[in-house]
Design brief:
Layout: H1 3-10, H2 23-27, E1 35-39, H3 46-59, E2 64-68, E3 77-79, E4 85-87, E5 89-90, H4 97-106, E6 113-117, H5 124-137, E7 140-145, H6 156-164, E8 167-170, E9 185-190, E10 193-194, E11 202-203, E12 210-211, E13 213-214, E14 225-231, H7 233-238
Parallel strand pairs: 1-7, 1-8, 2-5, 2-6, 6-7
Antiparallel strand pairs: 3-4, 9-10, 9-14, 11-13, 12-14
Helix pairs in contact: 5-6
Length: 254
Amino acid sequence: MTAADDVALDDDPTDALSAAPPAGARRNGPARGRLKFCYGPMDCGKSTLALQIDHNHARQGRRGLVLVRHDRSGAPQITSRIGIVRRATEVGTGTDIRDLVREQWARGQHVDYVIVDEAQFLSPAQVDQLAELADEAGIDVYCFGIATDFRSRLFPGAARLFEIADELQPVQVEVLCWCGLPGRFNARVRDDVILREGDTVVVADTEHSVVESSASARSDAETVTVRYQVLCRRHFRSGDLGPAAAQHGQLRLS
């Protein structure tokens, strides 16, 4: 390639890449945080991972802010299915997450990182607030949540995270459908029938006999029992929940 070719490339009006500083210059620039989204189906260990990251950062002397939106326990806390619980600050519909950080600053407390569990329930505006904290305040933000709702459509908060997060990481703990294939879809089940319509936000669990807590108002008489079941795409589409009776014991090779 000749010098003339170099000039021609530099002048290309269709080139989407701008000039970038060398690595040394980047290190001398202002601190910038990361916005990371760890996602997966129910039961894959997202909350456990969130608590582990908080534990590791705290042990290394960093100060964090732990947030949650609609934990399945109904309390302002992060609950892991393996029994670990951590108190957290509940993010409401109208909460400005930047204000939560400013409150910490007003108390003289530095914030190095923010952890948000059930981040799929955030509004797109709240996700943008997290991005601002990463970019302008140099705070590392770790979000954990489900990507799609019971209809297999992206939650608004998850969709915005997919659009603007610096890092997207599927949680590596594999959850299997009853057929043995990887499960990706969170089916909402009532009376052993998959529901295809209803409120987008219904906080329940994958266990049986869990009471529905819906975003819409209901009287006690209207409260029903629902659960969730993780399925592969084929059985999510067909509505097949598998054998009614659990199979106990290990299959024999003979």
